[in-house]
Amino acid sequence: MVPRWVFPVTFALIFVGAILITVVCLVAKVGFRTSDSEHEGTAWKKGALYQIYPRSLFDAKFDMEGTGDLQGITAKADYLYDLGVKTLWISPFFTSPMVDFGYDISNFVDVDPIFGSLEDFDELLKTMHSKDIKVVLDFVPNHSSDEHEWFQRSLKREEPFTDYYVWADPKGFNDSGDPIPPNNWLSVFRGSAWTWQEERKQFYYHQFHPKQPDLNFRNSLVQEEIKNVFKFWLDRGVDGFRVDALKHLFEVEDLSLDEPVDEEADVEDNLQYSYLKHPYTSDQPETFEVVRDWRKMMDTYPDKLMMVEIYNDDIQEVMKYYGNDTDPLADFPFNFQLIDKLQNRSDVTGTRLKNIIDEWVDNLPDGKWPNWVLGNHDQNRVASRLGADLVDALNMLTLLLPGTPITYYGEEIGMQDADISWEDTKDPWGCNFGRERYQEHSRDPCRTPMQWDATANAGFSKGPSTWLPVNDNYKTLNVKAQTEARESHLKVYKTLARLRQESSFAKGKLAFPVVTDEVLAFIRYLEDEPTYLIVLNLSENDVVVDLDHHANLELPPEASVITRSASDKSEENSPGSKVSLSALMLVRGEGLVLQLPFVEEIE
Asked: Which stretches within 53-212 are classed as H helix?
């Protein structure tokens, strides 16, 4: 066999030259450290937070509907435990007409029959808690379904429900006698955000689908209703909430105001949400008052997590949702930087990743905890968006940086987007753009059933079909195959989850010895504990990295391999072997986790 050190000389020279130009060395971020007692008592800081889209994990009821359910999640408790999951985040399973697949809720305090019953949920909670896995629910306070009792009674102007939703008189009537909406506000799902209700002779506002009317949070009774929903689930034993679409909670009181056109958006479709700027319908100051009230209420329960979904290009606006020591708000707002700024393979460079990490950390309020999100139920999967060869390297990044990694189901095996036909598509967002444009906006490709094995329906359901088609690659890309393989994405992920429990990662410091466009290398270290070096080759070529001579830190000549990307099949980099830091060889997209025998003081 030809030794792996026989690489093309010209390529090695080019790569070393790039390192010489762009090497960066940073001191440790001591603000990342937490006390021993804080770490021990906080599950969401100790391990990965795993998001489950309940329709797509496992169909345990085998009711021939081909839809995942709560029993299915319970049935996979051992899998989640073995994966190293410490906190489970479950997308909505509440009673719903399913126009937006559970985000249109007609009863906030019950389970939709598609997913099971409250008894099924209680059993799920009991099972997960027996395995020390916390359970966090997706909470949707901004809107309900138009089939909710509150809306139906508001429609009839029954007190006290008359003003539970945002109602407005028409601006006027057109030549045909049709009512004109009070302003130009647009729905995220495209088109006017106002729908006429003939029975009440008014428009109602909906930030999303017309069957998802926005609740009126300027009504104190609505605020109390939502707090009671929180309490219902907290009293049942849940461990916290992910709060959805929080930026949309309030609108300005003056409903005659038109939002301005976003001249920089380069959007020609004047019905598309991004055609306008949204100063009157998002991030209103009253939102913080409500979140503060929720925080105080949740603090009456021990150790409950509140994370909030906030999309905003201004990172300072996002950071406001942390609050501060004297005025705490959410435990954290989601960090979408790794999604927003990494939309394709060419976006993934060491320099860009380092800048993304720095931007979040440098803006983090004192004493607050970071988080890292690569994907979710609204985004293309990592393997499809950024490249299948980068799956392990990017999992190394998020699981081994200080902070909470958030893993979307299936990312641990490198699941990919499925090709969903117009006839099979379900997502209302995509459908609103029609046959010609639905693929630009549909979220269905990342929501397909979990691929458990190579049997029919990928082992997800015994029914004749599944709610969305299973990805065609399920026969080779599945949990069973990766469990049985010598090396796989799944085995790498499990190793990373175990490493996170070590003090060097749980409480250690962080330094970056080398940052180039091609390579990102970072160190996790703690006094009297092992020191780890993580090296990521983010290029599309095999590389030779000379860390010994080109890092601005004193490094030993050799290190031991703990784990490496599943794509590397060489003997030289096999786990347990020793490698030279002056000629470290990585295949394209590879990540390598190394243990160093010693490191001088890093400051």
From this structure: 70-75, 77-83, 118-130, 149-155
In this structure, what token pair is assigned to residue 119? 């008894």
Cβ atoms of 225 and 216 closer than 8 Å:
no
**309 in active site:** yes
Quick one: pLDDT at residue 62? 66
Residue position matching structure tokens 């979408």: 336
Average of pLDDT values for 257-275?
Answer: 95
Residues 244, 286, 340, 572: which is the catalytic one?
244
The total number of structural domains that make up the chain: 1
| Confidence (pLDDT) at 554 | 80
Residue 478 lies in a domain: no
Q: What is the pTM of this model?
A: 0.92
Asked if residues 522 and 401 have their Cβ atoms less than 8 Å apart, the reply is: yes
In the chain, the amino acid numbered 200 is R
Output the average pLDDT for the chain. Answer: 91
Dig out the tokens for 336 from the structure.
């979408």
String of b and e for 413-427 (b: at least 16 CB within 10 Å)?
A: bbbbbbebeeeebbb
CB count, 10 Å around CB of 153? 15
| Containing structural domain, residue 519 | 9-30+507-596
Residue of 59, 309, 444, 487 marked catalytic: 309
Residue 5 clears pLDDT 70, i.e. is over it: no
pLDDT band at 324 (very low <50, low <70, confident <90, very high): confident
| Domain of residue 513, CATH code | 2.60.40.1180
The yes-or-no answer on residue 78 being catalytic is no
